What does this fold into?
Amino acid sequence: MTKTILIDRLCGQTSLALLEDGALAELYFESKGHEKLSGNIYAGRVENVLPGMNAAFVNIGLEKNAFLYAGDIQLGDAELAEQLRGARIERLVRPGQTIVVQVVKEPGGDKGPRLSCHITLPGRLSVFLPTVKYVGISRRIHAEEERERLRAIAEALVQPSEGGIIVRTAAEGAQEKELRDDFEALARLWQAIERRGRHVTAPALLHCDGSLIDRAVRDMLCDEVESVRTEDACLYESLRETATTLAPEFAGRIVLDRAESPIFDRFCVWKQAESAFKRRVWLKSGGYLVFDYTEALTVVDVNTGKYVGKRSLSETVFALNCEAAREIARQLRLRDIGGIIIIDFIDMDRPQQREALLDVLRECLLRDHTRTNLVGITGLGLVELTRKKVRQPIYKQKCHVCAACQGSGLVPAHEHTARQALLEARRRRRRGDETPYVIIAAPPVAGMILALGAPEGAAALRVLADEGMDEADFRLESFQEETPPSGAKLLKDKTGETP
It folds into this structure.
């Protein structure tokens, strides 16, 4: 597989697209005032402690206080941490206390960011864990001999220090000196953060995880990346400088694209990105996926659509499910969906086909840099998996709630709105209000009101069709014998006859 990274900047927004064999796999945006917070380290001030939730709210200098669970608090050395394991929040922190925390989850909706005291400092080849004694090797490094070699190097590196290390995928095949230099640079960075933390007044930012450009060079460059392309000369210089510092072996793959057409258009990025905002995603075979979001989880439904297959029913269903699994794995990355995900594949009777489908999905999920966990198939035949929530999904970044349906995806039927208007008219009559009135509604609703007829006992029904009205709304106003306003038409007068 060959990968291409495209980076563009327009009106203060930096956009990054990752293409795999020409197909859009990931898309990121960053603009001034909306920078990523996850990974940033702060000196925070505990504002209040919530024993009932075993958590605390911490002020880190943002508009909303951040949330810190008791289980994410690390105080003192390893011995003290072990003594306080499982302790209640009121034993761990107190209001007004200053603590060093890291953002592990972006704010969203009415919630502030989530924090942890378990700090992680990622480098190009390793991740430094200053608060825990631990050695880990990336699960994407499969060769057992290489894993043992890297583990031996890593264990030697953490022996003199109090921290731990995770060896990243990019370290596969790296020399001991390269890994040591990377780890020691991170250790020095942590020392600088600690020094700064001793001389600031909370809340204060102690360390920024870097811009989208910095993170792209640090986290995305690998042997599979054929080129990193941009048409912006300033971005090109910034990329070259960052790559020369962090990954000099890849500096030659940074390309200043001088073609006339916009780079994202030439690689069909925006056209491919359209699927990330659609509820229904069509598959090449003629089947389709349906994505539905709720507060608790994301649901993906697989449908045969126009696909009829050429062989037996079981083979047709299995082939479509495998195609769907590949596209679902891609859409999870492209949409940046996190949390619980439930997939309703088309039912398969053969257990070996169900296991083979899970293998296909599992293999596709391995390409995802964000941690995923394929739980398996439930008793109802649904596939469960989780994907770590780091950022807001792309639809929340780039969409707002519909003013008509308030995010439900539904608006009242014309008949329902018409009947609600007639119910209000009946309430007026029951209250003894004899004031002449007119029902004002959108044309389709106004027509439905006329079709339903006047409430029982009403002398006349006056309806005004106003093209400026929302189809879910109506209003009753005192009737005035005058010309209707612009854009409105009186459909029925006081005699019940159309003018």
Q: What stands out?
A: DSSP finds 13 helices and 25 strands in the chain. The chain has four domains: 3-35+225-270, 41-207, 278-398, 414-492. The first helix runs from residue 78 to 83. Residues 493-499 have pLDDT under 50 and may be disordered.
